[in-house]
């Protein structure tokens, strides 16, 4: 199953979350860039009235960005959207795998109604997100044909689909994200060291030449901006968290060999989805990407 085969609510919440995440980090990048630019203008043209006005204007824009972040709270939309998307995804996998609570001996119409009621409950519990959810025909339906087809497959086929499209997919995602954040953490660490070293060298040179004009404040502002960005992205924490999750998922996959019948599949899916939910709950509590 691909993501377009999931309920429209999943795709809508996922889209809203990604958009809010991009808005948040784009606003933060602009804020930090304008701070550095304002410091540079102030240093380069210390006696120029127009430069002073420009610096004031830049700081007013940064103030506006801070107010926008406080009022709009894109990070809340980001996390709420992710929470809804992950909840829907978990419910969807349980439904298509005929795992509890969708393994009752009822008609398929009744099973569909129970699943739709659970989706309504998820949406009702996250009404604050409703203003940011969109629906277009390309987002799909509440229950796709692929979901129905998968649910109607033999249990062995469903197990194969679950291992491939859920467990392996999650394992690869966490592994790639772990490696990416490891590289970015090293890159930003080196950049931070360079800026701090440059600031120290400039300060030492000023001691030797007190009358020299050096962009120490600009470098210091840039170093602070890098620190703020690193704290926001949390690359080191993400690297550790995602690496641990990837290892746990590998262990989960190993348990699939013990599935020998329909009831075993239901138990396996429940345990697997519970593990994924724990990871997501910890992710939400720490508020990391």
Automatic annotation (TrEMBL):
Residues 7-158, 162-283 form the SMODS and SLOG-associating 2TM effector domain. Pfam families: SLATT_1, SLATT_3. The keyword Transmembrane applies. Keywords: Membrane, Transmembrane, Transmembrane helix. The chain crosses the membrane at residues 28-45, 51-69, 188-208. This is DUF4231 domain-containing protein. It comes from Rheinheimera lutimaris.
């Amino acid at each position: 199953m691909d993501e377009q085969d999931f309920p429209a609510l999943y795709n809508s919440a996922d889209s809203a979350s990604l958009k809010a995440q991009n808005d948040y980090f784009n606003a933060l990048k602009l804020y930090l860039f304008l701070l550095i630019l304002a410091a540079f203008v102030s240093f380069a043209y210390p006696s120029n009235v127009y430069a002073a006005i420009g610096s004031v204007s830049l700081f007013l824009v940064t103030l506006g960005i801070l107010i926008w972040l406080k009022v709009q709270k894109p990070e809340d939309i980001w996390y709420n959207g992710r929470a809804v998307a992950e909840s829907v995804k978990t419910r969807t996998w349980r439904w298509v795998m005929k795992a509890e609570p969708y393994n009752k001996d009822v008609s398929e119409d009744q099973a569909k109604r129970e699943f739709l009621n659970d989706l309504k409950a998820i949406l009702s519990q996250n009404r604050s997100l409703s203003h940011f959810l969109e629906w277009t025909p390309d987002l799909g339906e509440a229950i796709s044909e692929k979901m129905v087809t998968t649910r109607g497959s033999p249990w062995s086929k469903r197990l194969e689909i679950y291992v491939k499209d859920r467990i392996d997919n999650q394992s690869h995602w966490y592994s790639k994200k772990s490696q990416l954040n490891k590289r970015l953490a090293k890159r930003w660490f080196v950049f931070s060291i360079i800026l701090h070293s440059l600031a120290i060298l400039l300060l030492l040179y000023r001691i030797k030449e007190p009358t020299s004009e050096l962009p120490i404040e600009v470098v210091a502002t840039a170093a602070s901006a890098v620190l703020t960005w690193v704290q926001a992205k949390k690359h080191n924490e993400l690297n550790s968290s995602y690496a641990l999750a990837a290892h746990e998922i590998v262990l989960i996959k190993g348990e699939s060999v013990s599935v020998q019948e329909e009831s075993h599949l239901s138990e396996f899916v429940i345990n697997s989805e519970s593990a994924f939910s724990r990871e997501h709950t910890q992710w939400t509590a720490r508020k990391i990407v």
